[in-house]
Amino acid sequence: MYSVGRRSTKRTARGISLVEALATTAFLGVALLALCRNTVSVTRVEKTADLTSAAQALATQKIEQLRSTPLGAAQVAYGTYYDPQNPLKADGTTGGLFNRMWTVSAKDSPRLGLRTVTVTVYWYAGGYHTVRLPAFVRCATVPCPAP
Description:
This protein is an alpha+beta fold.
């Protein structure tokens, strides 16, 4: 009679197959491409937010300048005005990306003794962008003089 020996139930580690390595590499490649694409998208959105914030600050700066002018000053008379320093940098100095203009309403808008001033800052960065900021200024007389 012969004896049946016990076979070992443990398998020896053979490593990974070429197909498994290829599938893992492809998966990692796709994941890294998606990550790179998202990084580029986030960077673009962040840059646009930066530029919009700078434009908002330039518009606010001009509104504050116009509100501090004396009553009846030429800068708050009816009409459309362009900043003489155009194009502007984000800090308001000349030689940048932004253009600033403001429009003053005719008379007594929204009510007697007030005019609406709308400051517009626009720029081109991969497309045209605009920020508009309305505010009110007082006229020297009530009602405001006719244009």
